[in-house]
Amino acid sequence: MLAFAARRLIVSVGLVWAVASLVFLVIHLIPGDPAELLLSQGGIAPDPAAVEELRDRLGLNLPLWTQYLDYMGGLLRGDFGLALQDEHPIVDEIALRLPRTLELVGAAGLIALVFGVPLGVAAALRAGGMLDRLLTAGAGLALSVPVFVLGTLTVLVLAQHLRLVPAGGYVPFARDPGRHILLLLMPAGTIAVGLGAVVFRVMRASVLEVLERDHVRAAQARGVSPAGIIRRHVLRNALTPVVTVVALHLGSLLGGTVLVEFVFNWPGLSGYLVRSVESRDYPEVMGIVLVISALFVLLNFLVDLLYAVIDPRVRHG
Amino acid sequence: MRRAAYRGLILPGVLAAIIVLLAIAAPIMPLIDPVRQDIAHRLTGPSAQHWLGQDEYGRDVLSRIIWGARVSLSVAFSAAAAAALIGTLLGILGGYFRGVVELLTVRAAEIVLCFPPLLLALLVVTLLGPGAGTLIFSLSILFAPGFARVAYAETLSTRALDYVTAQHALGARTRRILALTVLPNIATPLIVQFSLTVAAAMLLESGLSFLGLGVVPPAPSWGLMIRGARGAMEQAPLLLFWPCLALTGTVLVLNLLCDRLRDALDPRGRAMGRPGFLGRVFALPPVPSPPAPGLLSVQGLTLQVPGPNGPIEVVRGVSLSLAPGETLAIVGESGSGKTLTGLAVMGLLPAAVTPVAGSIMLTGQDGMPRDLLRLPEPELRALRGRDMAMIFQDPSSSLNPLLRIGTQVAESLRAHGTHDGVHDRVVALLRQVGLPDPERAAMAYPHELSGGQRQRVMIAAAIANHPRLLLADEPTTALDVTVQAQILALLQALKEAEGGMGMVFVTHNLAVVAEIADRVAVMYAGEVVEEGPADEVLAAPRHPYTAALIASTPEGEAERLSAIPGAVPQPWAMPPGCRFAPRCAMAQPACTVTAPALEEVAPRRAARCLRWRELA
Amino acid sequence: MTAPLVRGEGLTRAFHRRGGLFGRGVPMMALRGVDIELHRGEAVGVVGESGCGKSTLGRLLLRLMTPTSGRVMFEDRDLATISAAELRALRRRMQMVFQDPYGSLDPRRVIGAQIADGMVIHGLAQGTTVQDRVAALLRQVGLDPGHAQRLPHEFSGGQRQRIAVARALATQPDFIVADEPVSALDVSIQAQVVNLLADLRGELGLALVFISHDLHVVRHLCDRVVVMYLGLVMEEGPAAEIFRAPAHPYARALLAATPSLRHRGAAASPLAGEVPSIAKPPSGCVFRTRCPMAQPACAQSVPALRLLPGDATRRIACHRAEEIAA
């Protein structure tokens, strides 16, 4: 188990390093000068002297590998550099906003699992029945509604028309816990609809598949009760594919936050990213993409460990 | 089944075709210019000229929706096509050549998967600036690894198949193998992946446009329209509604198409039925109580499965009997119904199979005979694992890989009310079936044991409650010969130790029958064709099928094996008259007309043949 | 005696399983030095339990797999050193029939096209002659020539195996490896395919390597038998001799464990234990852990395959060959 975890950890660290290098290289090797891009507003060619001054300031005139080592060294010290626009330390802004995005992702994941898993099991056990058909159709619809459409319509109906909830925003938990949770629930719920539909579908398919397996029949032959069969022989075995699929969807989950934070004015990391993309502040974009990717890699590492917890064959393999 | 799956394609297929046609036909339709502004009439509702009203710049909404479809679909299709081309190529090469090639293709492509997709698109937009070209470029990069993964996995499993090796053995060049053999056989999941990708690309495109980072205004795009309408949603909520409907509807149609495509191309996913253990619903007419059995007595058992032209009888009129302490072998080829007969006794028939006639009487541990076919599920469950137990063909899949051996053996005990000293009893059982170091084996997981040891575990779980009847369904078929001999010896020893336990042994191997059975029932095409004491039946068969089966067993000194011509008839195309007649060397015209009954041919022996006397 | 058609010398094959913190882990030796010879028109049976390396051996002989060490000679050519083009051309003369009749035919192509593949690849026939040859081959294996345009799923398991045989025959090979060709078939169908192979061997003078776990089938078809255990040959000799009186303790046990129609209780003296994992084979003689005749000396060195004393036709790999012969 320890060797397994260590192996996965080494791979994960390597991946983060590869991602960081890739982001760095892509930004620096793609044709086009970041300084020029930044200064050219509205298609007017910038003053060459200003561009040169900016290049100097950003260290873009140094050899590429010096820049690379500087950047990597900075990362190791937890320094992501300064933003181009107002020269604030990028790491501070990330540290402020990252927890909010994590909170959103965590809440969405939790809601999706809390609804998706039990409903998936229920639908599978009554496959072909009324409940199953209803839930399956609902999941199909939920998967087809883009998050920003759902979010926008939620704001339109719940906030604008019915005036049940505020249209969005953010209040720190310490200041007003109730309002904080209310404001969290809308974006989290919006993300959870799609994710929950995915979890539901996989859980349902997985349970149906496990029910057909020989060891379920063997347990029946021993006289084990239906409840015992479902608990010991179906649920845990059916969970592995769910973990896989949730892991595969972590990416779109993290991506989904970009849109949802925008719709609900949730001041998370993604809003920060959109702003930096709009202003072409490439050190900011690099920093944020890196952090989110590292987060993604970390989550995948945790998923691998989870596999090992569920399945002894992975542990021993 | 398959035809129904293809029918399911019609609705989403037609809808998708309409959407695509509308998008293609946009330039030749009498639409108002989608970018012409009319500020004076901004946010006006529907009118004769503007069916869906005008937006925040007074542009025609209907026209923008249709032109928007053109933009969204062309971006999504181009990106998906490019991704499919690149990804499939990488995946096939990586999967076929493995090694370094795999590293350079598939693994390299998978680095992209380390980025959440929307983020990667944003990164590209930062570098290249927004626009349709950027969108297509970034979306193809995003989705190519998905194709590479699918193509890689499919190629990997396809290349291991014998028909690919056969091509190699024939001397075909790699190019020919990849194009003619591998590609057509992995096309199915790639087509599904393609329709999935088009839907995902539309979602991403509209999302980016919604953020103002995708399609550049004033070009019409659904994402942009939603972005624009959002600003005016208090005054004109309908404006928000139309693009949302168009976008969601299109993605829904594409997803539906994808699901139906998957069903049509891969019918496995649709097979579904009520899980058996949640309660069987059989409506069998009561029978006048049949004679009390020795141990087990099956009378006239008939099993049906639904077929396209009415129900098919897969087991017809099977009668068997077993005395305490006796071993009955049911022998037959695939499709003979021998396994279904065994499962019917246990009440573990697959959902599609229904008993329609007959009775199965079992004398339980309490000495009471019961008709298992008419017993409610909870009462039957109480008998399973206690009065009767079963072991299966494949010991690897019959054990839950996630549970310890001891836990699974203990289940038998706990399910029937033993809660004290379970662990000691489990260890004793494992010792009894000959597992070395039973204490440790109880703590092991199934994958830590060998095939023969796993079958021993299954036997330990089966005999835990001293059953009266042990059903063994091909328990040695998956094992090596030397291990088979061990398991057969173990079963014999257990039968002697558990005085009075009867055994039903289902097998296709006549030599195994000779080895262990007291009595034998030979089954063919769902019927018992001969029944009697094993040594007598094997020495002097009274049915041509039994005789032919013995003759075709490669054991005698004969230079040439005598084969049975033809093949077992399919259950939906049973010959009239005797079911063996088309393959029988002794068949006469009468045999193809009358279905012979099972006749007593000697004391305690029966055969289902019109001409059995000529065999005597 | 004439030169053999196919000769394998010291064939070894290792597989790697992932393991440990890094790297490839321990190599698993599927085959650990096997010599085999096959003459024109001869049928050799290769028998053994799972993990004995019999399928690996078959694939190495056809060079569908490369040996880790050792070499395969086809006539006077070393299959490892000839060019890829030469090897492809040589493939016309050596063919394979597989175990699983469902996996060995491409489900998406009509069987006529699959039978014709070899002729097309090697340019043996063109146009209508291909059709005629396909029809003739189908007739030869006992199928209706009119069925050439059907897909594999329209045939039963036994018929598919006949199609696979027709495909192998299409290039008029000299040498066929049949890897468990009847074990997936019902008994009554097995006999059909065994008879077909026996007939074709006689008619066409094919050299045949017949891989099987079923001793009885091998006896019917083969002149010589090779008994394998854990990647090594235990005994080799004329089929009739080995079946009459197997010499090696493993060959004896294998024959004894096989149930028989004739006499009940034949399988009464089973070997203890199961085949050890090929990742951790026993030291010395690989069979010693289950051998009723094992002595401490058996753990010291690997016994060489040598002539059975007093019998010029049989070879066994046993330290106690002298006692066995006596």
TrEMBL record, chain A:
Keyword field contains Mitochondrion: no
Keyword Cell membrane attributed: yes
Signal sequence extent: none
Protein family (similarity comment): Belongs to the binding-protein-dependent transport system permease family.
Keywords annotated in UniProt: Cell membrane, Membrane, Transmembrane, Transmembrane helix, Transport
Localisation per UniProt entry: Cell membrane
Protein name: Peptide ABC transporter
Transmembrane segments: 9-30, 104-125, 137-161, 181-203, 238-265, 285-310
Main location: membrane
All copies of domain ABC transmembrane type-1, residue ranges: 98-307
Pfam families, per database record: BPD_transp_1, BPD_transp_1_N
Gene Ontology biological-process entries: transmembrane transport
Membrane topology classification: Multi-pass membrane protein
Lineage: Bacteria, Pseudomonadati, Pseudomonadota, Alphaproteobacteria, Acetobacterales
Cellular component GO terms, alphabetical: plasma membrane
TrEMBL record, chain B:
Domain ABC transmembrane type-1: start-end pairs: 69-258
Keywords: ATP-binding, Cell membrane, Membrane, Nucleotide-binding, Transmembrane, Transmembrane helix, Transport
Membrane topology: Peripheral membrane protein; Multi-pass membrane protein
Membrane-spanning ranges: 9-32, 75-97, 109-129, 135-156, 177-202, 238-257
The organism's place on the tree of life at top rank: Bacteria
ABC transporter domain: residues covered: 296-550
A biological process term (GO) from this entry: transmembrane transport
GO MF term set: ATP binding; ATP hydrolysis activity
InterPro entries tied to this protein: AAA+_ATPase (IPR003593), ABC_Ni/Peptide_Import (IPR050388), ABC_transporter-like_ATP-bd (IPR003439), ABC_transporter-like_CS (IPR017871), MetI-like (IPR000515), MetI-like_sf (IPR035906), Oligopep_ABC_C (IPR013563), P-loop_NTPase (IPR027417)
GO cellular component terms given for this protein: plasma membrane
Location of this chain's protein in the cell: Cell inner membrane; Cell membrane
Entries under Pfam families matching the protein: ABC_tran, BPD_transp_1, oligo_HPY
Classification via NCBIfam families: oligo_HPY
Family: Belongs to the ABC transporter superfamily. Belongs to the binding-protein-dependent transport system permease family.
Protein name: Peptide ABC transporter permease
Native organism: Neoroseomonas lacus
Automatic annotation (TrEMBL), chain C:
Membrane topology: Peripheral membrane protein
A molecular function GO annotation: ATP hydrolysis activity
Main location: membrane
UniProt KW keywords: ATP-binding, Nucleotide-binding, Transport
Domain (ABC transporter) ranges: 6-255
Domain of life: Bacteria
One cellular-component annotation, GO: plasma membrane
Intracellular or extracellular location(s): Cell inner membrane
Entry-linked CDD domains: ABC_NikE_OppD_transporters (cd03257)
Protein name as annotated: Peptide ABC transporter ATP-binding protein
